[in-house]
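Researcher: We're teaching a course module on how sequence relates to structure. For the next exercise, students receive a sequence and then see the predicted structure as tokens, so they can try to spot secondary structure elements on their own. Here is the exercise chain.
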Amino acid sequence: MKSVYQALAAVASFLIFGPVCIAKDLPVSEVRLYALDCGRLEISNLAPFADTGEYDGHPGELMASCFLIVHPKGILLWDTGLGDKYAVPSGGTKLPNYAAVVPKTVAAQLAELGLSYDDINYFAFSHAHADHVGNANELKKATWIVDSREADWWQGTPTPERVNPALLTAYSSVTVKNIRGDYDVFGDGSVKMLWTPGHTPGHHSLMVTLKNSGVYILSGDLFHSYENRAHRRMPVFNVSRADTLASIDRIEAIAKNTGAKVVIQHSVESFQTLPKFPAYLD
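Model: And here is the predicted structure for the students to work with:
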């Protein structure tokens, strides 16, 4: 009899919350935010990351972070990092602009939750630079949420700087939700893509509203460090300085009005303020 009650309860949970299951923790009734370590960029000269010269000649390390947002209506992966292929060799792989170091694959981190790439319902990325879409082609079963301006840009000729179109070939065969501007992913205001152009034409940040932890804004590449945010600095390779400054103003106003915590996705220090995976915010 107990198994009958459990079966009925499972059916009721499916009808109420949808088919979102995370390992043994079933069902998911509130939004969760998981921070995934998707690698590090070891950079010999940070000069390109400030068009006003503050970092000329200085080496540094940038975080490549990804985020899993688990909602009663589905699972969203935000950015995919450098790429699981760079987990070998362990000491890093030298690329044109940085050394890619991936201590643990995204696939392995998803497996800790009983998930694989095929279990992701929605995939969105802040922008199309290679360090944010390294595993994008693994998301063949997800619906990709893409700003059409970003798609036009990365597919343009000549290929934009820091873009590797080979990392996005699945775009032509997956289900795509085309957007222009802001987008409410689940339709209830809890997970919103905010259009923040400047770094790239279709760049977005992600605002996640959590029941217990409050509002978080994932910056994408609007900011690269605490210093860049404080001094309104930006990389030399941003497509528009004016748009970047306008986007900074917008996000700072939203953060002030909502009390949001801004997560600087490329900042190791900012990433370390978040619960260590597989712990999460809710």
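Model: If you want an answer key for the exercise: The two ends are 34 Å apart (CA to CA). The first strand starts at residue 32 and ends at 43.
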